[in-house]
Amino acid sequence: MVLPVVVLRRGRTRERGGLLCAAAGAVPPDRDSVVLPDELPLPAGVFCPWEGVATFPVNREYATTFYDSEGNVTSVLVTGFLAVTFTNLDNGESVTLNIPGTGLYVDDLLIYRGRNVIFPVSGELKLVSGRVVVTIDSAGFQHPVSIHGSTTDICALLA
Known about the structure:
This protein is mainly beta and 159 residues long. It has one domain (29-157). The chain has 1 helix and 12 strands. The protein is globular and about 55 Å long. The relative contact order is 0.17.
């Protein structure tokens, strides 16, 4: 399942004091708003045993994309404030979570720090406080490589 995320693009040049500035030979990073869908369906049996939906009542996240001297993406850092509400459509239970942790995508790994939600393929939905390293497959599922910190099973919380 690919999570639909859109990054609004802005120009790569930065202006300071009326002059364009950039390090010699370097491509400056882009900082863009992260746009999430109004609703993200959670089909029964994929993440949780119940059918659910995720909504994002607050999204002030930004993605900063870093480039090498040839303009190739080297990493993407996601920071900012995000709140997500998970709702179990079978029983009406819901929970809103503040998940302001950072995410760094580099070398086919996604590294979360702080408080985040991970969507592993193993039929779970987890709130994690700490450091998590995941790989992402071609379908968009996250496969945890390591989890250091506390976890909460959102599926059990809303069952």
